[in-house]
Amino acid sequence: MHKIFIVFFIFFSLPSVGQSIKDLEEELLKTNSDSQRMRLYYELSSKYQLNDNEQAISYAEQLLKLANQKKDTHNIVYGKAMIAYSYYNLGALDRALKIYLEANNLAVAFENEELKDYIITHLALTYDEMGNYSKAREYYNYNIQYAKENQLPQDQMIGLLNIADMFVRMKEYDSAEYYAKKAVKFDDQSDENVKSIAYINYGVALERNNNFDKALIYLLRGLEIQYTSDPDFAAISEAYLTISHIYYKKQQFQNALQFADSSIINSKKSESNYYLRKGYKLRSNIQKALGNNTRAYEDLKKFVETNDKIYSEETTEKFLELQELYEAKQREAEINLLKHQREVSKDSITKKNIIIIGSLIILLLLALFLVVYISRNRLKQKALTLLNSQNQEIEERNLQLGEMTEELKSQKEEIESHRDQLSDAYEILEKRNKDVTDSINYAQKIQNSLLPNLSTIKEALPDSFVFYKARDIVSGDFYWFHQKKSDNKDINFLASIDCTGHGVPGAFMSMIADALLSQIIIELDYSQPAEILSEMDRRLRIMLKQDKKYSNDGMEIGLCAIQQEKIIFAGAGHRLVYFQNNELKVIKGNRFSIGENYIVQDKMEFEDHIISTKEPLMLYLFSDGIQDQFGGPNDKKYGIKRLRNYLAAIHNEPAHQQQIHIETIVKNWKGTREQVDDMLLIGFRSH
What we know:
Phosphatase 2c, domain 1, 21 helices
């Protein structure tokens, strides 16, 4: 997981927000104000930390130097923290911890709780990375408590995320998911960058708990935000690495390889050897699973080299720190001797005493020089011994890798010969995929053109609405409307239809259903709903040749013939729900659907149900899409009972307001989950 550092803006106004590095550097050349220069050093260091930590350290050191000159404690602490953060990014944890502790001592002495909280956050992260989890958790809890007391929701979110990251390191994945989920609840109170890291970290925790589909949702959300602002390449690398792990575990190796490549590219941009090492190791495993042994060997070699590089950098850093310590001791001894010499010169002493004291000083200097020289040589010798030992290990590994090379060379030519063939096949698949998508999009236009005009329905039934939401581009659910006269009476036909399947198969069936309704009601002038459904069933069986073979293709339909004094309803698998005097009533219709050929009857017999309209009614036709949708806090179906209760609560409101309620409840219930089926709900009032 990717840790987040709390960064407080240390200036009252920040006109540089949104400026590029080039703009900031040009502004730095022009300004003569020390306060402006410190602000610009800080901003430039912050921006370079995303992709060039050496340059970030350079600007932070300039901030620290100027802050020391001005005796500005705030900016001295921030300058040290920025330097330590860059060392943290480069993997030099001991060096980062040493500088953070120096900054913390200053913050405590200055008695500034904000500075103290800022540094404690960084100390917690560093102890966490070093594996000192008890110390890290102590500091994290301090941060969260401070954020609660000062009403800082984003800082609470950061603290929770970092604890989640710690539990991932401890391999306690249930706890990691718990804390990451708590953190994500603050997403609407956080800036985009922090929100992005929160989504990525929650995705990592879910992946570790093998909740792959949900993990992918949050990882892709985090990446989407990253690419709309200044990218944090380390976070992007972590997200791609985790997605690659998911596909690797699913044994979808080509997808895994694609995301592993992206992780490695972004690791290089972030200068993060930590993620780079992991990327090479994972890609080596993927290549091995794909049978690409040569490439697997190459990535394994890069993994070893990156691992050795991290170890070498840490060793060199420790050696430099020891060297600095002894040089400081040497300077301190020289200063003490000079002080002693000045004190002696003040006294009235004889020439003989001066010679004796001078000789003693010279002897003492020589002795001290000899001690320091010997000590430094011993330290250098130890460092050289350590480096030689490391080089020997590397040579042994290279010998092992060389043996692997001989085994893999014979496979290289054959592997490379397939590369171009695979590339061509991939391009063909890409083109075919685009052609199919374009065709489906065009099919959507055709299907939408067949739907009745909503304004026509509104004109005939003023207090009505249609909620219609396809699962895919095209839908198996649709609604149908027609006005006509029969025996000098106006009849409005309104139907809800749910065809077998969804997407393209459902869309084909919906076109058949539209054609059948038009033939039977308009051309053949049928007016009774039960007769219309029976004739639809007969014609559909003929069209699909269902008398010769078993088929489950068909449709469920609820059909209303709306007249001045009554409404006639017939249903094939659909029900009519209506409210009269605030009382819920349900007409279930026939249990079998149109085209259901495992029913033994040669001809379906449907039943008409007559409802008087002398009293006001609010009526609803709907498919099973809403009630079958998974969601809510326990990831369950919405259910028919919950839907009826909700309709009971809103049925007295105007139709357009009811539609808004339905859209809202569906959106809130579904949340981030996938839509499982097409959705259709029609409501209309009869006065």
